Automatic annotation (TrEMBL):
Biased composition (Basic and acidic residues): 51-74
Gene3D superfamilies: Trypsin Inhibitor V, subunit A
Region (Disordered): 51-80
Listed name of the protein: Proteinase inhibitor I78
Domain of life of the organism encoding this protein: Eukaryota
Origin species: Penicillium cinerascens
Signal sequence range: none
InterPro entries named in the record: Prot_inh_I78
Length: 80
């Protein structure tokens, strides 16, 4: 049986691709530029999580989780 590693065997690509695109940027409803990334350009299966947000504990290896700081800047990207 092949080993499945979220973010590596994922159909959305590897985590480092999204880390490079998102880290240090803010998620915006409009367009992407040097300081922001458009929410519409995230994969269909994603969620944006602020520090105090409630979240479900279900595991979905193809879901991209974008973790924000209190100021809205991306601080981490995970799958699950």
């Amino acid at each position: 049986m092949p080993m499945v590693v979220p973010g590596v065997n994922s159909s959305m690509g590897d985590k480092s691709e999204w880390v490079n695109k998102l880290m240090g940027k803010k998620i915006s409803d409009s367009g992407s530029d040097e300081l922001s990334f458009a929410k519409k350009d995230l994969p269909e299966s994603h969620r944006v999580l602020k520090p105090d947000d409630m979240k479900t504990m279900d595991h979905n290896p193809d879901r991209l989780n974008v973790h924000l700081d209190h100021d809205g800047t991306v601080r981490d990207v995970t799958y699950g």
